[in-house]
Design a protein that fits this description.
By secondary structure, the protein is of the alpha+beta class. 20% of the residues lie in helices and 30% in strands. The chain has a single domain, classed as Ribonuclease Z/Hydroxyacylglutathione hydrolase-like (Metallo-beta-lactamase, Chain A), CATH 3.60.15. It contains seven helices and 16 strands. It starts with a strand and ends with a strand.
């Protein structure tokens, strides 16, 4: 898909299955189950979608899924990991080899966002700068007991050891047309990204709006450490996107990636899928 002079494309690391209560937080199952089918273990399918950005000067990818090679059978079973689709093969189908990636933009360091960065401790994208908020790196490497289970150090510590880690603070211009947007709420150091060219904008939703179901302000994840902050940020982003006709990218929907938001005529918003 074209965004001004840039190409924006969807890559995939397949699917994982997470607990429905974790994905929908305080929203009761009788409500969220109207939209999403859970399995017999109350898990729901979660897409592991990465955004590929090609500019005249660089090639970037946002988040790297869960990875596969380092997951033991027990963990694979817990998340019912489906690696019939994986990130590397998905990128190759788009004509991209790991060595072509100049930037790996990481929203945060949870297990389902950074898993494809390293295999057996070796960088997959060995020529790329890996961009992380300084606060996120601190929290991932000094985890509070509440958030400790969300991080697996072997998925990211090797980035620093190989000199590929770049820490930033707050909103930062990463490259021409690519800007990091500090969006703390899901984690203290959470960030997402705005892509812009010739007046056209794409916003990477990440955990801000996990799926089209999460477009409602009160549909929040139990994984959000500061849910009120997430809700307020979400409302602001959706309203601005409607006014300015932004393109949005869903990271966690199993089927939908690119979409726009429109006013639903009832004080809320609705999702309008975009054809690729």
């Amino acid at each position: 898909m074209k965004l001004g002079q840039l190409d924006v494309l969807a890559a995939s690391d397949g699917l994982a299955w997470f607990d429905g209560g974790g994905i929908f937080g305080v929203v009761p199952k009788p409500l969220w189950s109207r939209y999403v089918q859970a399995d017999e273990k109350n898990r729901v399918a979660v897409g592991l979608n990465s955004l590929l950005i090609r500019t005249p000067s660089c090639t970037a990818i946002v988040d790297t899924g869960m990875g596969w090679e380092d997951w033991p059978p027990k963990k694979r079973k817990i998340y019912n990991l489906d690696n019939t689709v994986n990130l590397i093969d998905s990128l190759k189908k788009l004509g991209i080899e790991p060595g072509d990636i100049d930037l790996v933009l990481l929203t945060h360091l949870h297990i389902d966002h950074v898993g494809g960065c390293l295999i057996d401790g070796k960088p997959v994208f060995s020529k790329a700068r890996h961009i992380v908020q300084k606060q996120e790196w601190h929290d991932a490497t000094h985890p509070h007991p509440v958030r400790k289970g969300a991080y697996l150090p072997h998925q990211f510590m090797g980035l620093k050891e190989h000199g590929l880690l770049e820490l930033i603070e707050g909103d930062t211009e990463i490259a021409s047309g690519i800007r990091a947007v500090a969006a703390g709420g899901h984690t203290r150091g959470y960030q997402t990204f705005m892509v812009e060219s010739e007046g056209k904008k794409l916003f990477f939703l990440g955990e801000t709006v996990g799926s089209p179901v999460h477009i409602k302000p009160h549909y929040l994840m139990a994984y959000d450490l500061y849910p009120v902050d997430v809700a307020e940020f979400k409302v602001d982003i959706i309203q601005r996107g409607i006014r300015e006709n932004w393109l949005f990218f869903f990271e966690h929907d199993p089927q939908l990636t690119f979409a726009r938001f429109e006013d639903d005529g009832d004080g809320g918003a609705k999702v309008v899928p975009c054809a690729l």
